[in-house]
Structure formats: C-alpha cells, structure tokens
Fold each of these.
Amino acid sequence: MVTIADVASDAGVSPSTVSYVLSGKRSISPPTRRRVEQSIRRLGYHPHAGARALASNRTNILALVVPLRADQNVPVVMRFVASAVTAARAYDHDLLLLTKDEGADGLRRVAASSIADAIIVMDIEAAEPRVPVLRALHLPVVLIGVPDEPFGLPCVDLDFAAAGSACVAHLAGLGHAEIALIGPSPAVYERGTSYAGRFLRGFTATAGERGLLAASYACAPSYDAVHACVDDLLREHPDTTGLVVHDEAVLAALLSDLRQRGLRVPDDVSVVAVCPEDMAATQSIALTSVAIPAGELGRAAVELAMRQLDGETHHEIRLLPPQLTVRASTTAAA
Amino acid sequence: MVTIADVASDAGVSPSTVSYVLSGKRSISPPTRRRVEQSIRRLGYHPHAGARALASNRTNILALVVPLRADQNVPVVMRFVASAVTAARAYDHDLLLLTKDEGADGLRRVAASSIADAIIVMDIEAAEPRVPVLRALHLPVVLIGVPDEPFGLPCVDLDFAAAGSACVAHLAGLGHAEIALIGPSPAVYERGTSYAGRFLRGFTATAGERGLLAASYACAPSYDAVHACVDDLLREHPDTTGLVVHDEAVLAALLSDLRQRGLRVPDDVSVVAVCPEDMAATQSIALTSVAIPAGELGRAAVELAMRQLDGETHHEIRLLPPQLTVRASTTAAA
DNA sequence: TCGATGCGTCGATGCGCTTCGACGGCCCGG
DNA sequence: CCGGGCCGTCGAAGCGCATCGACGCATCGA
C-alpha cells in the first residue's frame, strides 16, 4: 500500500507537507506543490480512508436512508439515489446506503460509529418518529419530505400543495368544470406520508377557489383496483372531464382502462399526471404532467448536507416549485 | 464520543479485553464478558469505524457498482440493491454505492483508499473492460453477469440460456409452432451486454431442437417502437402464435398494443415474459413468466463476497436456474 | 511437591493520517 | 545594518482500535 510517507520521501518533503498539499490548509510553494503532486500521481496515492477519518473526524461519506419496500415508488427512489450519489461525488464524498428497515437504531449506529459525516433521510412521514432521534444525533441531517414538526431539521421537497394547485389551475383554465384526483394507494395515506396530504390540500383548495367540482379517490396500483376506482368515479361523478393522477404506478393501468371503456384521452377526459418527466413522455400518449424532480431533490439534499458540514446552520425548508408541462393528454373541455 | 477506553474503565477491565469480547478472538470468562457487554449497552458504545479500519484493515463495507443510466432496467437494479444491502447488513456490513460512470478510476480509488473490503459489480458486458482492472485490484470482487473472459473472477447470474430455452420449451409443449422473441432494445445488444446474447442462444437452440420457426426482434421500450416492431412481426411472420418478451420495459406497451390490434392474450397469442415476479403478476393480465431473481442474485453476490473475505478463493460461476411460472397469458395453440 | 500447561487478562505498539507548535530563512522598514 | 514579521516547511503527538507478547493464576500429572 502507498502511504503518505512514501509520497513524502519520493518528493523529498515531510509527510505533513504532503498532507497540506492535499488539504490546502497551509500555503505551499508552487515548486514543492508540483513535486508532491507528481509523486502522488506517479505512485497512485490515495489517502487511507480509515486513517483520514480517525485523524480528522471526517469520513467523506454521506449516508442515505431509503425506503426499500417493493410497494414503493421505485423509479423515483432510484433517480433520487442516482443524483445523490453523483452530487456527492462532485463534493468528493461517497454514498452509503441504509434502509428504512434499520430504523432509529440504524441511525444511532451510523452516528455513533462515525461512519458518515451526514445523514439524508427519504420517505419522511407526517408524524415522523425518527425526527427526535435525528435531532439527538448531533450530526448534520437532511430530510427529503416535510414532517409536521421539522424542529429545525433542514428539509427538501417538491411543493406538493403548489403542484396540486397547478394541476387544478391547468384544467380550470381549459374550461373543465368537474374534475377528480386519483391519489396514491390507501396504504400511502395510512402511513401518513406527508406529501399525499399536501397535494390533496392544494388540489382541493384551488378547486374551491376556481369553483370546480372536485372528487378524490385513493387507488392501489393494480389493474383491478384501477378498474374499480374508475367504476366508482364514473358512477358517482359521471360528468367528470378532468383527471389528476398523483401516482405514477397507476398510470399505465389507468390509461389502458380508459381506452377499454372507449374513453379517449384527451377528447373525452383530460389527464394530468404527477410523475417523473421521462415517464410522462413514454406512456401510450404523452402526458401533460407536473414533474417529480427526483434529480434536483437529490442534488439539493446533498448540497444542504454539504453546507451544514461547512458550518452553516441554515435550517431551511426548501420547497421546489412545481413545473407543469403541457403535452398531449389535456385539451379544452367540450 | 464513547470510546473503548470508556467501556473498559466502566467495566473495570482493560481496553484489549473489551476488544476481545467484541471480536471473540480470545476466550473471555463469562462473568467478565457479561460485565463488558452491559457496559457496552449502557454507554451505547459503537466502535469508531475509521479506527477499526485503520487497525484491522477491515472496513465492514462492501462497495456496489451499479449502472445508473435511466435507460436501464430500473426496477431490477433497485431490487438487487435492496437485497444486497439487506444481505450485507446480515453480515454486519454496510453498502457503499458507486456508479458505473466512475469507471476504472473509481474502482482504483476505492481499492487504494481502503474504503471497502470487497467490490460487487453489476451490469457486466460481454467484453468487459473492467475485468483486467478488477483483477489487478487485489481485492475480493464479485461480478453480476458473466463476461466472455471472467479470468477467475467469481460471477453470479441467472442462467439466461436456460431461461431462453425454458420459454421455448413451454410454448412448444403447448403446441405452438411459430414463435418470436421480442428482445431488449438494440442499445443493449450494441453495448454487448452478455445476458441478451445468452438468452437469444438458448431461445434459438431450443427452437431448433423442437423444430419451431423462431424469429427474433429487438425493440426499444416505447409505445411507437413496440408498435413498429409488432407491425414487422405480423408482416414477416403472420402465423406467429407465441411471443417471448425479454424486456420488462416493453411489457405494458406490448400488451396494450396487442389489445388495440384486437389480438387477445392468450387466445390469439400466448405471451411469456422474462421479468421480476411481481411485475408479471401486476400487468393487465397475469403473465406466464421466467422470474428475474434480483433478490436472490443480490444475496448470492454478497455471500460470495463474504466467502472470499473469509479466505475462500472459490472462483465459481454461479448460474441460478430459471423458474418458469405458468399464469394466464399462455395457452395451447389453436 | 514441583514443573508444565493453559486460560484469562493486561500493556504496549503501531495502523496512516491531520494538525499544532516551532523553526529557519527571507524581505522589509527603520 | 539590524530586528521584526511572514512564509514555507518540519517533527511530534495523538485520533481509537486490534493485536501480540507477556504474565499471573489455577490445574494437573508425575
């Protein structure tokens, strides 16, 4: 193994000088710096992560706690993870993956063993039980999602209320008078995931302001459940002409179900989806949608973490504004 | 921070005794062990990961290199990651996530900085350029997928040749005489991903043995591409009654396309899919399928890694046998 | 009864790095 | 021409742990 001492003797300097070249914490003369950098490259030196962590109390590792239930929203989680690991690498950090299953003990373990410099937690519930634990950790934390009581913990999320609002406003602008929300499966509501409620509130409030009739359904992501849900919807609100779908897992089934019923999109029903961009574009019809900016969220979360590591204690709640893109699935009401 | 010295003085023993209690590498009398364990629990002691790594040359971290292209096979990757992290935890290890984007340099970095004890690499291509690098790393490595030249590196994968074979055998058994394979998008073949070719070989060989007419198409995962692909298929092989779909991204689009053409599944065409179990069950019709055992693969990969860390150098290539489950999408030929 | 054996525990050492204080040489102002 | 200050570099200490050799005590056979 190549150590800092090897580099030092190769470059004819002391180990501490090499360290300072690497960290930039003291000024080094250009010629010396150059010699050291050459030696580093030539020997392929990389500091031993453990030794560095021991001496500096910094691991250059970010922990990310993700939900790995299969029922979850897999593509969104995956995109989030992808952008987080990329963003972390841009700050010269690595990403350690933890599952929600490990619970509070897992968080304590990670903190106590100094395995990571900060923790990013996805899938935050409204009454998030991990919040007190996270606060007691004395470690930088970033939440993806907004619990009812964030207690000063920094949060990042899509502004779901505004997203619900935007969907309704779009349909209202097209002259639709009766609309319905097809929300995520009942399980999501039961779990108390905060975004579902926030979206629903934005949806309902704006429908009220605009004077629209607005129903709302929760639907599990299976063809049968979707079929039953649409049955209910058409029975209870036969004049519905606008649909807002807040669950990407349901999209394919819904579009297929509508087609089988002879309901054309957008001629008979306009559909607005809340889903990742590329998903909206690759359904059987290109969907007007509010994007779930998983990539931006991942980046933002890492940024907030890094900022805390730099000593800023800027306990903000950053809600990304929704972006509605009009595609082929919505049109003016008849 | 609670250190081993704190535990030691709390329990009235020396630090080394605490260490031996933890590692079990020397025998400790039951009373002492009990006192130490109590102190550990009471103080909430967890060894400092960096210090442990420095002293023992073991990090208790496994690195996992995943492809994070969006075009990829997201649900399968996610399942794999999920099971790998769970399996790793069962061995008291954590999972560090790396992206394929980092390439060979990333592998060298991880190895040189002793950040992980072993590396698991997904998305192996037939002519995998990373194989020589991985061999030179002097670190335990496990490949998910089988390159043309594994050179002694342990591999885990589904036996795709057998899977292709099983699909054909199932359709042949039902009396289908003319079948077609709808394979992954041309991009996958171009990249030289090894599993696509192996599946195709199994498919073709068994079709030959059984005397079936077998065509094969590569299809990108979009509704348009699927439509065009089915156009070609029906024009060139109008008597096809059995379809093997080896790309889960294409499934929903294909089923929807067939329905729109008035082709009923399974009455007019039988469909066998290669996809994760739950995906097969949640399409518009429950699909006869060969499972992609992402969970088992993740577990197996971690096991092979741990085994190498235990000193075994059992450079095996473990191909999991395919499991075909008959569901509602296949029936006897007319 | 005495030496040999083995079990349970301890102290010291070192893993590779960061960081702090110190020091020598240089430049500048008086 | 001399002293003070600054810049660039070095040496030493210590981060928390695993591990090795050593040691004391009890046990057993001769």
Amino acid sequence: MSPAQHRHVPDHLSATLSALADPNRRAILARLAQGPAPVGSLAAPLGLSLPATSKHLTVLERAGLVSRHRRAQWRDCRLEAAPLRELAGWLQTYRRFWDDSMERLHAYLEQLQSQPDPAAGDQKHPGR
Amino acid sequence: MSPAQHRHVPDHLSATLSALADPNRRAILARLAQGPAPVGSLAAPLGLSLPATSKHLTVLERAGLVSRHRRAQWRDCRLEAAPLRELAGWLQTYRRFWDDSMERLHAYLEQLQSQPDPAAGDQKHPGR
DNA sequence: CCTATATTTAACCTATTAGTTATTTAACCT
DNA sequence: AGGTTAAATAACTAATAGGTTAAATATAGG
C-alpha cells in the first residue's frame, strides 16, 4: 500500500498551540505584551538572527497571535490576543480537573451515575 | 563554523504545548476527560493504529498529561491535569489582552506612565 | 539618484514528528 | 506449555521545523 497520506489543514487551535510551543516565540509574545515593537528589537535580546525572528513572526502571524504593520522602514509587531482567548476557552473545559472544588463536584456527579461510565469503555473487559 | 547547535532540553510549558498541538492527542485527552480508558479503546474511534496511539500516549505521558497503569493485559490511561493548570497559569498573564474590562484598566495604567513605554523600545527610533 | 537601514526571501541543512509495517513483550486463559 | 489478546518497540519514510548564510526588497534621507 502507498505510505499513508496524513496531511491536514491544521485547525486554529493546533496552529495556536504549535506556535506557542516554541520558547522563543513565547518570549516574543512576552515582549509584545508590553507594547508593539519592530522586528530588530525583538531579535536582539533573544540572541536570534533577523531571519530566524522573521520566521517566528510569520508563524505567530499565521496563528493570528501577532500582526505586523509597516511604519517607515520598520515593521511594528503587535500582540493579537484572540487566539489566546480561544485557547483559554478550550482549556476551560478541563478546569474541573485541577480546580479542587470542581473536582469534588465532578467526582460526585460520576458517582451518581453508579455505573462505571458506559460511554467510556473502562469496564473490566473493554469493547475490543 | 559548524552549522549551529540549537539543541535544548525543552521546558515544561513547551512540552505541554507541543503535546497539545496535535489534534489526535487533544482528542485522546477529550476522551480521557470522561474517565480512564485502555489504549485500544482510544485508538479505534480516532482511526489511529495502535502503534501511532502508543506513540501519542508516550508524548502525552512525557508531558505529564496522562499516566498509564497496567491492569491485567490492558493499560489504563488516565488524564493528569497538572500541566493544564500550569498552562492556564501562563495564559492568565495575557488575560488582560482579551478581557475587556481588564483591557481598559491596562490602557489606563499605560496612559499613567505618560511615556511611550521606556522599557519597550517602541519609540520613533528603536535601539539599533 | 545613491546609500544606509530594516526586514524578508531563497536555498540549504539537520533534527524531529507522525505515520507506517513487522516483531517483541506481557498477561491472561485453558 | 501453548495460544490469544493488548500494547510497546524497532526500523523505516516523508514532511515539517528551526536554524544558517547570502541575496533581494523597501523605505528614508543626504
């Protein structure tokens, strides 16, 4: 058989998360959180070359996390938070797993079901 | 010169984010959010092979997002939320950028400084 | 118009990722 | 012991990611 075509258009969340997965890119965002900045001033403190920085910015831009605007010969980069909000929304659905009070509630609700969760397949003998 | 050694031990947050960046892995977490499950029952509904699933689980495990426990010949996977909490904490520092009321406060605080943010270098002529 | 400055783009390299198939390991059940 | 089921590991592959150096592009300014 042909060696598997596993190519997708990545969704928003995946783009956001993989953009954020790089520490240099998070450092760029941290810097931009204190106000817009041109590319060069982002590169220097991170010990990154200009081309590397530019690429990181492209990744961040494609994830919607920054926008760039020409301003004379510079290009001002600005933090765009919408994807972060989206991420926070996604994360929210897991909040009960680390929030103690919610965790207790959840445990209670699970216990209410009495059954070991029929939808989950975590019985003694899980369905094949 | 040798072609640049950019090898790091990735930090927690990077490991968490890159683990979460894959939609299949997020689907696994979503499934585990409804209770622990053996590997096979995770693979099937995602159309993933067992080896692929096992690898995803290894990635999630190394990020601390799941744990696996032998249970007869099965291996029960359980969601571990600590890294998600850590992520939520990190995200929290950006909350003011999407939360309207906070945003207004932030704008006000920035305006208090009167100066266009000396630490930021976003003046007319940014430092080299 | 020419030159300096700021940034992007191109071409290339290496490591990592996500998948594959085939083989092992582990535990259960006669 | 032998067979079956569950999962992991090995070996391989194609695509992606993050970096490099060198060349191109865009704007400002004498």
